[in-house]
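Reminder: ligand-aware prediction takes two inputs, not one.
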Amino acid sequence: MSFQHLLKASEFGSHFEWGVAISALQNEGAYLADGKGLSNWDVFARRAGKIKGGAKPSVANDFYYRFKDDLMLVKALGFKVFRFSIAWSRILPEGTGRINKEGIAFYHRLIDECLLLGLTPYITLYHWDLPHELEKEGGWASHQMLKWFSRFVKICAEEYGGKVKNWIILNEPMGFTSLGYMLGKHAPGKTSLSLFMSAIHNAALCTAEGGRIIRAELSNAHIGTCFSCSEVMPFKDTMLDIAAAKRADILLNRLFVEPVLGRGYPEDPQFSFLEKLHLHTKAWKYKERMQFNFDFIGIQNYFVLTVKHNPLIPYLSASEVKAASRKAPHTALGWEINADSFYRMIKRFWHYGSIKEIIITEGGAAFKDVLHKGRVADEQRIDYFKKYIAAALRAKKEGVNLSGYFAWTLTDNFEWSEGFEAKFGLTHVDIDTQARTIKDSGYWFRDFLKT
Ligand code: GAL
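Here is what comes back for the chain with beta-D-galactopyranose:
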């Protein structure tokens, strides 16, 4: 496709924000330093067999101690925005109660350094690491979550609001609620439908309430929240597969954004899960409280899914037909690469009509990188970014108010249950020595951002 070869960053306009995103748990390490409390992931990673290679996030890539060097990398690669998350367990080691001054001070140092380097900080308030003490009380499935989260948000706004304008409330609620409480693959490793439904509802309430708190504290803030999304295709053109794809689509793409837009949870008489969810959460009472007029919505699209009808899968009755088995291009995690599908997802969010601005708050891919003689020649990742950025440009040119693209991620890091094996960084990290090596894709970005 010739479009992508002519790609120039300047085509996105001079106000477009190019950034790079990280998260606290995946990068910081220093898991008990300076009064930090344990997080759900610190504890979950200790359970045998939960993380590939038995990896733990205790040190991760040592961002807590190396943030100045890593921000220099952000600068060297030419990005103007730095998105990071705050570890709740540094601010409130027990999740509630006593504030940890040293934890507060760390994010002041980080923000100050960003500002010194001319990088615009975007703070994510919650990127999947919950204080362990709160997880013990039920975590996202507890009805106290709204109260706990509200206090945390207020503290962050009061502390950092004078310096930071851009706020993201939750990172991908579908990710941490489903993987954590239904599928057992992420912290806290639970597998319960009713916990999952409670977690969904508390996350939906916290999303909107978090927005309201930031708005009340900081009238000039630029407030958003991020959603994962994946176009879902039926494997075969049969009624059963089409219905399976529709159910998966509701869960993956509509469940969280529609309440925010004031539509409440989706309804579909063919999908009994939704009826259960409505009853379990008494959703009719909460429609207004789940709504918030966000300044922007963050979209994170890592794959397109193909599904077929499968009666053995509870509630969803659908299962994935892997990209590899269909001989479709895919990343090292088996995730199908399809930039046209990414373009369609951006357009689809925009078509709701009530989203004011969209930012691609994460985009990137894992490949099997090889460090050879001081170089990582990650051609596949460069190709991936070229295609996905071209797709974003296409959507923008067609009228979507797309205002930023943040690459995932700066450095190889702790990739949740994949441990250190899945590598998404623009910079390679030797996890034993912590040495950083900019990959070819990092240099590609640097050159691209000058165009
Ligand atoms: C996202 C998540 C990130 C990162 C990425 C790649 O869902 O927000 O933390 O892990 O996926 O898997």
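The pocket of beta-D-galactopyranose is lined by residues 23, 26, 171-172, 175, 228, 300, 302, 362, 408, 415-416, 424 (CB under 6 Å). The CA atoms of residues 148 and 429 lie 35 Å apart. We will return to this case in the review session.
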